[in-house]
TrEMBL record, chains A, B:
This is Diphthine synthase. It is an enzyme of class 2 (transferase). S-adenosyl-L-methionine-dependent methyltransferase that catalyzes the trimethylation of the amino group of the modified target histidine residue in translation elongation factor 2 (EF-2), to form an intermediate called diphthine. The three successive methylation reactions represent the second step of diphthamide biosynthesis. Residues 1-227 form the Tetrapyrrole methylase domain. Its EC number is 2.1.1.98. InterPro entries: 4pyrrol_Mease, 4pyrrol_Methylase_sf, 4pyrrole_Mease_sub1, 4pyrrole_Mease_sub2, Dphthn_synthase. It comes from Thermofilum pendens (strain DSM 2475 / Hrk 5).
């Protein structure tokens, strides 16, 4: 049997009763830490909470070797594969599940809080107001000539509908590189220069969430021109360009960031103007 | 201090180490079960896992009375408010956090797996492919004359972009009414009759997830004309109208539901035709 289980957002805090039970009789426990980053996660703490040793697996182990070691254990007993956040968010994990199923191995997936849950808990943003989520990767070339259009286009599309856009920021754990909120803010401004479709300007409101829900989480709200200098501390960071904010979202952000309610209200006016300009059909119509 | 913590998706399985720690020194533990439903959750099991008694709170306690009892405990000591799924998904919870903050009470929010995490774990659908999430409520009048346009319009918008649409189905725990997948399927067909914008037909592919990630979860994939007769057992259920499916999503759904890969491939062809028809701008463009 293969059990894929999530560790959630920070350290050992989100480890569930169900995961502890699975760990008890697992033949081997594997830990994958290259697709995501968990603030405060130390292998020795994990070992102490689980009461068991864990084996670190690399990208090579899981992708190039088709997770051979993990599946061999799963074929003859029970392998527990631990991932940060919610499992299957990385396509690597979903491929392993399919591979196991093909070999007739039973699979169980245990959910855990994802970064989306963390953002909701840390910002009070409504789940119904999120547009498509998108990743922002480090530019390969400084000119952005070959930079993917997708993040910019998703933002444009979401803004025109008044929806929030979550940017998941690049994590290259094997290289020790983690995109920070201020770098992401700068990148968005540069994408505007590159594509010039009037999606971002220096007054664009951005929300930065660092180490969502952790003891030392930081939530920033302000203009992108301020955000490029904001120091939110260590990774992981997330950047959100909000759409139209509901009154209760505004109340929450005001409480969380200390920013005056007016900042969010004037942003709403701007989003509304963009919605009208783009001629998006209303999401509510009188019957 | 007010601690709002999620119980996750089913029974006591997703209770976290962090939540157990918070429960130890809480002055009072409150449980709210009217905004959501957790299969297999029994108060006696919860009490046994927490090693503490819990007090059930009703909608009236939290909404009409402005959570007075909870905040009184929080003001003089530590109140732990337990919610199903991830906290703050219900706006009630976010209002309580704001209310506590206004009164100068410290707040901590502990994340937990939400139904979105459950869907990802149970279906292998990619988080990047979700469009806006929407709720489907029970019709007040059989003619659907005053039924909200939003769910239909969100689906139309997502389909035209090739994105997946998650329908969160109505839960009226206080009345013991839970919308089932087959009822939701029927309602979608009736919304098509009502609004007639060619969004749904009897060949529309729908995915039904019942009791996501629980031991007895069921995942269904098939035409909506079959779905209206599909019995997936007890609530909670979720309905997804997929957009364009990635190869790895198809592999996963094939493994999970046993449906031939061709079912999903021909659905992709249909989604693609709709995307072209609606003239949605591509989300990728050559630089």
């Amino acid at each position: 049997m293969l059990v894929v289980a999530g560790l959630g957002l920070c350290g050992t805090r989100d480890i569930s009763v169900g995961l502890l039970r699975e760990a008890e009789d697992a033949d081997e426990i594997f830990l994958e830490t290259y697709t995501s980053v968990s603030p405060g996660l130390r292998v020795e703490d994990l070992v102490s909470v689980l009461g068991r040793g864990v084996k670190l697996v690399t990208r090579k182990d899981l992708e190039d070797e088709s997770a051979r070691t993990v599946l061999e254990v799963a074929a003859r007993g029970k392998a527990l594969l631990l991932t940060i956040g919610n499992p299957l968010i990385a396509t690597t994990h979903s491929s392993i599940v399919v591979e196991a199923a093909k070999r007739g191995i039973k699979v169980r997936v245990l959910p855990a809080p994802s970064i989306i849950d963390g953002i909701i808990a840390s910002t009070g943003l409504h789940v119904y107001k999120f547009g498509r989520v998108v990743s922002l990767v480090f530019p390969e070339d400084p000119s952005l000539k070959n930079y993917p259009y997708t993040p910019y286009s998703v933002l444009k599309d979401n803004v025109s509908r008044g929806l929030h856009t979550i940017f998941l920021l690049d994590i290259r754990a094997d290289e020790g590189r983690y995109m920070l909120f201020r770098e992401a803010s700068e990148l968005l401004l540069r994408l505007e220069e590159r594509f010039q479709e009037n999606v971002v300007d220096e007054n664009t409101l951005v929300i930065g969430v660092a180490r969502a829900t952790a003891e030392d989480e930081k939530v920033f709200a302000g203009r992108i021109s301020e955000a490029i200098n904001a120091d939110l501390g260590n990774a992981p960071h997330t950047l959100i360009v909000p759409g139209e904010l509901h009154d209760s979202e505004i109340d929450f952000l005001h409480y969380k960031t200390g920013r005056p309610v007016e900042v969010f209200k004037s942003w709403n006016a701007k989003v509304n103007a963009k919605k009208k300009q783009s001629g998006t059909s209303p999401t509510w119509r009188e019957p």
